[in-house]
Each structure stands twice: as C-alpha cells, then as structure tokens.
Design brief:
Aspartate Aminotransferase, domain 2; Aspartate Aminotransferase, domain 1; alpha/beta; single chain; 2 domains; 42% helix; 13 helices; binds pyridoxal-5'-phosphate
C-alpha cells in the first residue's frame, strides 16, 4: 500500500539532496570542526557555508545564526536569554495558541515567580494587536508570538507586533518553525530580535534547529559548555545535521516562489472538494492569512481519531485536533482558544502538504474521505439524533 503523507507540519521527509549532502559527514569527513588539523578544519569550513545558506533564506547575517538541536531548544533558549539578560523584569507575553515549546515552558515559569500573559485569538485564530499593546508593561521582558500556527496554519502579524514591542524597549521572539520555507522571511525588513527554526519541518533531519539572534542583541546561553557557536551554544556541532539544514534552506529558497504556488493549489483543491462533498464540514482558521500548505477541517459529529484510523487503513497520514491523553478526549488548546464548538473541534483533521505531494494523491484523498465520514456518522448517535431533529422540523 502506498503511503500518502499529508502530515508535513508534524515532520517532513528528508530531501534526497539533503541526505546526499549529509552522508560524507558520518564516516568520511567525521573530524571535529574545532580541531587544529586540516581534517577537522575542512568540516569547519562546510559549517560556515551552511550558516551562510541558512542566513540567505532568512535575509540574515551568518553570525546571527546559532545552530541548536531543535525548535524546542531554540524557543527555550530565547526565553531563557531574555530573562537572564533582563533579570529585573518578570513578565512574559505569549499567545494562547503557542506550541508547547513556548506554552509549557511559560506555564513552568509561572510557577517560578514570572507573570505570564496569554493573548487571546478570535474565532479565526487571528491575534488582535490592540490586546498586545495593552498587555505590555514596564516589567515585560519578552514577547514571544509564533509566526504561523502548526495546527491551523494561521499567520500572525509578527513584524508589526515586533515594532510595537520594540518601541517600548521590550525583546521580541518569534517561533517560525512552521513558517520557515513556506512563506518569505526577510530579517532585514523587521526588528524581530530572535527567531526559531526546526530542521525537520523543512526537509532537513530531526535533531537540528536554529536560533536567529539579531546582531547586537544581548544573549545569555542556554547550554553552557565549549566555545562552539561563539559561546552562544556549547556542545560539539551536529555536523551532518548542520550541513543538511544548510542544503534544505538552499532548496527552500528555490522552492518558495514556485512550488509553494503548486502546493497551495493542491491544498485548495483538497479543501474545496471536501467542503463540497461532506455536509457540516468547515475550515478552522482564517482563510486569507494562512500557510499555503495547511488546512484544518472539522467534520461535525465524528471523532477525529476515528477518522485518522480509517484514513490510516488506506495509507493516508494526517493529524487530528483532539488527542486521547490519559483517557479523556480533549480538543486541542488551539481550537479551544478559537472557540470552535465541541462537536466540531472533536472531528478536526489537519492536512499539511509539501512539495513532494502530487495531484493523484490529493485526488485519492478526495475520493475516499466522504465515505469515511459517512461511515462514522452512521455510527454516531449524535449525528443520527441531529438528522432526526432536522427531519422532524
Ligand atoms: N514550534 C512549532 C510551531 C512547532 O510546530 C514545533 C513542532 O511541532 C516546535 C516548535 C518544536 O520543534 P521541534 O520538534 O524541532 O522541537
């Protein structure tokens, strides 16, 4: 059975070109880039090249790129540094829909004496900048808002938010883990201080990330150790991962203009066909301000996890907005923050595409999904009651 992978916001395939670029760094060019000898030194040169490739995708300077182990580490390092360099300030502003890499960290910091403000979003997942303005106080150390949401793809106006924050002398960080490679980012055009990337979301491997730190921003390292990354992140470099990420950024820079138009067309085709074929279905998240690859669709009165199981039987991979944690099915914090009604939130499926998806794959999903939903609704007492009520009216 062929796998149809529509879960690219969870992780992506390592691009063939990326894998090829990485392979020599495992068993041929395995020297330590910090070594004095030429064998290690040549690896150091390739790391410098990769730093330039990442910087080019972001419109950044190479020295503003710090390699980390993942998006979570980058997010943690940004918040940690803001608090360490501004020890007199005890307030952090985030949104209610941040990834756990920020939200769970801030919940923890809330137990350590920090005050956390979580900004609300509207029913389309959009952030109101007036609320941000009102939340800022002389005690605010940092504002951290994601560039694009992993569940809905909704894009936040982070460049405007950064300007507003900066005007008050407050640091601004953005989690751009989902945005990078999918929409243009040019750090020359904004005042964002720090930005997080994760390699495995853009066809590089797992275990490599980046924290962009704008030149001149005071930084306190999260991992203290050797002098690597100019003392901003101790630990022997993940050489192969860094080389792979550099290549992935080069590919993303090439793909962003052309392939993302194709990906968006495929996403739109899938979305429109499903909304048409399945009654009582709807898109979660603002249609305009959205990543080109993501659609989050709710099918009322069915269980997301049940849908995923039937999709799985056909080789179709996607994600659900409800997670069966400790026996209780809770809709995701993102859908709850948007006020998506319970019966809708439970039946939400996130489809996230990549440049590797084809029209045939999308057509297959369009063909199979309506029957899956119909079958599950046939078993749902809520759906049957609802239908009964309609016919009785
Ligand atoms: N931030 C966002 C928006 C994400 O979607 C993810 C991963 O799903 C992360 C952070 C964490 O990245 P990593 O898996 O590299 O730690």
């Amino acid at each position: 059975m062929k796998t149809i992978y529509l879960d690219n916001n969870a992780t992506t395939k390592v691009a063939d070109e990326v894998l090829e670029a990485m392979l020599p760094y495992f068993n041929q060019l395995y020297g330590n880039p910090s070594s004095m000898h030429t064998f290690g030194g040549q690896v150091g040169q390739r790391i410098r090249d990769a730093r330039e490739q990442v910087a080019a995708l972001l419109g950044a300077l190479p020295e503003e790129i710090v390699f980390t182990s993942c998006g979570t580490e980058s997010d943690n390092a940004a918040i940690h540094s803001a608090l360490a360099t501004r020890p007199d300030k005890k307030h952090i502003v985030i949104s209610r829909v941040e990834h756990p890499a920020i939200r769970a960290l801030c919940t923890h910091l809330g137990t350590q004496g920090y005050k956390i403000t979580e900004l609300p979003v509207n029913k389309n997942g959009i952030l109101d900048l007036e609320n941000l303005e009102k939340s800022l106080t002389p005690d605010t150390a940092i504002v951290s808002l994601m560039w694009a949401n992993n569940e809905t793809g909704v894009i936040f106006p982070v460049e405007e938010a950064a300007r507003m924050t900066h005007d008050r002398g407050i640091l601004f960080h953005t989690d751009a883990v989902q945005a990078t490679g999918k929409i243009p980012i040019n750090m020359k055009n904004n005042v964002i201080d720090m930005l997080s990337i994760s390699g495995h979301k853009l066809h590089a491997p797992k275990g490599i990330g980046v924290l962009y730190i704008r030149r001149g921003t005071k930084f306190s390292p999260f991992l203290i150790g050797g002098h690597q990354e100019k003392g901003r992140r101790g630990g022997t470099e993940n050489t192969a991962g860094i080389i792979g990420l550099g290549k992935a950024c080069e590919l993303a820079a090439k793909n962003i203009g052309t392939e993302n138009i194709r990906v968006k067309q495929l996403r739109d085709k899938l979305e429109q066909a499903l909304l048409k074929a399945v009654p009582q279905s709807r898109v979660n998240g603002d249609i305009q301000h959205r990543l080109p690859n993501t659609t989050n669709i709710s099918f009322e009165y069915v269980e997301g996890e049940a849908i995923l199981l039937l999709m799985n039987e056909l080789g179709i991979c996607a994600s659900s907005g409800s997670a069966c944690t400790s026996g209780s099915l809770q809709p995701s914090h993102v859908l709850r923050a948007m006020g998506v009604p319970f019966t809708m939130a439970h039946g939400s499926i996130r489809f996230s595409l990549s440049v590797y998806n084809t029209e045939e794959e999308v057509d297959f999903v369009i063909e199979k999904m309506p029957a899956i939903i119909e079958r599950l609704r046939g078993m749902s007492p809520f759906w049957n009651q609802g239908q009964q009520a309609c016919t009785n009216q």
